[in-house]
Design brief:
By secondary structure, this protein is α+β, with helices and mostly antiparallel strands. It has 3 domains: about 180 residues, Beta-Lactamase, CATH 3.30.450.40; about 170 residues, Hypothetical protein af1432, CATH 1.10.3210; about 110 residues. About 55% of the residues lie in helices and about 10% in strands. The protein has 18 helices and 12 strands. The strands form 3 sheets. Strands 1, 2, 3, 4, 7, 8, 9 and 10 form an 8-stranded antiparallel sheet that branches. It has a two-stranded antiparallel ribbon with strand order 5-6. The longest helix has about 50 residues. The protein is elongated. The protein starts with a helix and ends in a 13-residue tail after the last helix. The relative contact order is 0.07.
């Protein structure tokens, strides 16, 4: 063989080899590009949390990978035993239903069972039931499937359904959770509809596998969010129920917790809206507002452990019942004893012929009976009085308590030590011990709330709820916290709690207070550093006291002396 022939043959072989190498390289680069794209798609799908957007991306990527003209995505509804249409797209007909389109898919679901038997007649249901990938070159020539739906759709729209690729979506547990159905693969060079190539099938399997995992994750997140919302609603309803139950323990404080919560949130919202002054840079976040609201609803939860007779004590002698009836009955008994004793003495005087002394005896008896009756009326007044127990009244009470009477030869005091102690209360109706019981509710509230596993954004609920009776100068309770130790939320609630208590129209132990008087008391408390003056000024300047008063107070309480500025 000549050298020229050998050279020519080698040249042809080299050209052929180069062509093969280039084709292999092109194929490899194409596959690498597909794999890279598939990887990026998987990352994008995994990052998407909105289910409608995710479904949209799945069908869009599947159509792009296979150059399909149309696509449908179903999800499996195990409870209803059917495939639900989620997305339907058709480029030629410019159709887009479901997903983010805002247009619902108005097609009936595909049953997975018919008369209790598996539905293998529909191509999508067969893929869902068997897990098989179904690749049909032409639906009009296919046998074994019912394509009445696509043919009817074609007849109505003028479309021509031809090649079809149906891929089940399997999660990591190999469970089928959906089906992707692609229609009419288009040859990019000729523009003709062709069967779906096998190499595209492999790629689309990888895509649907990633899509299935992403869809399940998104669904789990969605379900968890719904569950969290349900639990949140249940938790808040439970909180409000507990608060209502606490208010209902007392016939005189119903609605207190609700009113304090509303006032607290009014002040907090005013803080958020202010653009100047000491709170210009303070902005409560949505989580902080929720934390404050829950703390306000729970601020008196410790009163669950407070005896009703202490909470409801409207008279000084009240415990489980009002003991004034025992005292007045005792005084009536004392009067009868005095009358009996006088009768006995009168009889003795008559027997002794001292009838001239009977009139004097009768006069002393009437004076003594009048004194006892006067003491009884004074005791009743002390028991019900809403005024301060003055030193003069205290001295008279001491004199009455020092008196005794005899019954069946046994000496008894007019008043027991406990009765004397309760009637001696200077302000209000509570003894120091009972006031301590009332104040203890703040400690109990903190103790109870710290037992609850609040999420991180509600972690300060116990601290805020338990601090509404603290004072800036450290003289409050339960922990004697100072200004630096008190969170601003607790200071807000303190003003709300005090203002509600001062103006409450349903307290049996005091007359409904005028609005001007309540504002004056708050001013005094600012001066004494019991409450935060900055919050007080915001409360008044924003007219929150008037807004509240118009909604909750009697008209007689809203006096004209209050400046709404």
């Amino acid at each position: 063989m000549s050298n020229s022939k050998t050279y020519s043959r080698n040249s042809r072989l080299n050209k052929l080899l180069n062509t093969v190498v280039q084709e292999v390289q092109h194929y490899a680069e194409s596959q690498i590009a597909h794999i890279q794209k598939l990887t990026w798609i998987g990352i994008a799908l995994s990052a998407e949390k909105d289910i409608n957007t995710l479904l949209e991306r799945i069908i869009d990527q599947a159509m792009e990978f296979t150059n399909a003209d149309a696509g449908t995505l179903y999800t499996v509804d195990n409870e209803a035993k059917c495939l639900q249409f989620k997305i339907l797209k058709n480029k030629t007909l410019n159709t887009h239903m479901g997903g983010t389109s805002g247009a619902p898919v108005n097609l009936p679901p595909v049953p997975l069972e018919v008369d209790g038997q598996p539905n293998f007649a529909n191509v999508s249901s067969q893929a869902a039931l068997t897990g098989e990938i179904i690749n049909i070159p032409d639906v009009y020539e296919a046998v074994g499937f019912d394509f009445t739906g696509p043919k009817k759709y074609d007849a109505q729209t003028g479309y021509r359904s031809k090649s079809m690729l149906v891929i089940p979506m399997k999660n990591h547990r190999d469970e089928i959770i959906g089906v992707v159905q692609l229609l009419n693969a288009v040859d990019p060079d000729s523009g003709e509809v062709v069967p779906f190539p096998k190499e595209n099938v492999e790629l689309i399997i990888g895509l649907t596998s990633q899509a299935a995992v992403a869809l399940e994750n998104a669904q789990l997140i969605h379900d968890l969010q719904e569950l969290n919302e349900q639990l949140k609603e249940l938790f808040e309803a439970f909180i409000e129920t507990i608060a209502t139950a606490i208010d209902e323990k007392s016939a005189y404080t119903g609605g207190h917790i609700r009113r304090v919560t509303e006032l607290t949130m009014m002040i907090a919202e005013a803080v958020n809206q202010t653009t100047e002054g000491p709170f210009a840079q303070l902005q409560f976040s949505e989580d902080e507002m929720e934390e404050l609201r829950i703390a306000a609803w729970l601020h008196d939860v410790g009163k669950i452990a407070t005896p009703e007779y202490v909470v409801d004590k409207s008279h000084k002698l009240e415990t489980i019942f009002n003991r004034i009836d025992l005292v007045t009955t005792r005084f009536d008994l004392i009067k009868q004893i005095k009358e009996t004793e006088a009768l006995q003495k009168k009889a003795q005087l008559l027997e002794q012929g001292k009838s001239d002394q009977v009139a004097e005896l009768e006069q002393r008896l009437q004076e003594e009976l009048q004194s006892i009756e006067s003491d009884k009326e004074f005791i009743v007044e002390c028991n019900t009085s809403r005024e301060k127990m003055t030193p003069e009244k205290q001295e008279r009470l001491n004199q009455i308590a020092a008196k005794t009477y005899f019954l069946n030869g046994v000496e008894h005091p007019y008043l027991t030590d406990d009765e004397h102690k309760n009637l001696s209360i200077v302000y209000g109706t509570l003894t120091d011990e009972e006031r301590q019981v009332i104040q203890n509710h703040a400690s109990v509230s903190i103790k109870m709330l710290k037992k609850l596993p609040f999420p991180e954004h509600l972690a300060r609920v116990p601290e805020i709820a338990g601090g509404h009776h603290e004072k800036l100068d450290g003289t409050g309770y339960p922990n004697g916290l100072t200004e630096a130790e008190l969170p601003i939320q607790a200071r807000i609630m303190a003003i709300a709690d005090i203002f509600e208590a001062l103006t409450a129209k349903d307290r049996p132990y005091k007359e409904p207070m005028k609005l001007s008087k309540a504002v004056q008391i708050l001013q005094f408390m600012c001066r004494d550093r019991h409450i935060d003056e900055r919050i007080y000024e915001l409360f008044i300047q924003q007219g929150l006291h008037l807004q509240y008063a118009l909604r909750e107070l009697n008209k007689e309480q809203i006096d004209v002396n209050v400046n709404p500025a």
